[in-house]
Amino acid sequence: MSGLGSGATVYDARSLPQDDNVNPYSFCVALDGEWFVQKGKMIAYYGRIKFEALGVGALDRLVTANFNSPLYIQDWIVAQGKGQLLLADRGFDVNSYDLEVGNLTIRAANLLAFQPGLDLKQSIVPGFVTLIGTGKFVAASNGAVHFVEPPIRVDPEALLGWADCPTPCHHFDTKYMRGALGMARRLTGLGGASGEEHQYDFVGTGTVLMQSSEISIDPNLIPAQTAQQNQPPGAQNIPGLPNLPGRLGRLLQ
Amino acid sequence: MQGTRVLAVGLGGEAVKARNGTMIAYDGRMTFKRLSGGGEGLRGMVTRRLTGEGMTLMEVSGEGTCWFADRATEINLVHLTGETLHVESSNLLAVEQSLRTGTEFTGLHGATSGQGLFTTTVSGQGTVAVTSDGPAIVLRVSQGEPLSVDPGAYVAHTGQLRKEFVKDVNWRTFIGEGSGESVQLRFEGDGLVYVQPTERQTIGGQT
After folding, report:
1. Residue B99 — very low, low, confident or very high, per pLDDT cuts 50/70/90?
2. Which ranges form a coiled coil (chain B) (predicted)?
3. What is the ipTM for the molecules in this complex?
4. In this structure, which of A17, A183, B136, B146 has its CB flanked by the most CB atoms within 10 Å?
């Protein structure tokens, strides 16, 4: 067989990178204490680590202190103990970020783990959570992450999160919908929506995180309650706004 | 290897065994022969039928180069020098002719982890191509340093390892809540474990 000698690196508990990426798709947490981890993202671990559901007995303290999101509490567990914990998420790119007395909002389903030094709060934008405080967190993205500065408009599916800037607002390309033709489009949904009439608008100072793909998360693969939340509110949900299948189309459904 | 997702095999009259339908291109002269029952003879064929660790192999022989790939999954080459590789049949792409394949009873835990009761073994001297969803991470297990792996991320292992099915102490708290980390495979002993950065068949039946 040709192409021999692909000497794959063999890791053990000591040679694993500590709090760093093993490869672009998985991250090793040198656990000594507690981390919040999203359910089902652990792929392997060394050492003595216990996983407990949130809201169980002794963990109530931690939950009341750090986890302010009843909506997502079912999706999270706490890893306790000492050892090396490997995290990965469907082969997505995984990266860690440090936050220092900061705040960062991120798509809930893309957040894999965070230190209890951070407080998790539900964002007012559905499907997103905000981390406040100091600590490290691990997040996944489909493709590499790009950091951009406002003012910028981002496609809802490509948006991962944002830091230190005001909450975004929706932006709709209303020009496209003006006039008789636009009215016809709006009513019938025919005549071509480019699919890019709706964006998130960021202004002010801060950083916006984008992924290089518009496939955010397959709703079938994430727990039920995040599935709905994760979809950014498309124009379909908001009456009078331009998008497929149009108002008439909705009536016919 | 060409990239990490295509396996190129140069043949000079010898043969390789590969999973049916994974050939994507070849040049030179090649013959493809289906090997019923994974080329393990009648007994192996019956065993595979019975165990559900189904696997159709073909024997590729000739002269030239043959390229194999499977749904753009990452390909990992494992070199065996006499030891045995345990691998899920769905992750096996190709093996050298000199290697023996077989089935093995993995114990009852296989049924609960959704991997079936049996696993495929490859033993002998030569190279095995194993596919994984995302590049596999090789983790060493040694005495006093056990490793726990999510069943969905497990791909293969070699060496003298005891595979044990572990339920987390608080597993009851997970009941009715789908997959948590309540179920793990614990490996003890000496050997290597291959894990992939994806969890198959966990929440929504991926793959």
Report:
1. confident
2. none
3. 0.73
4. B136
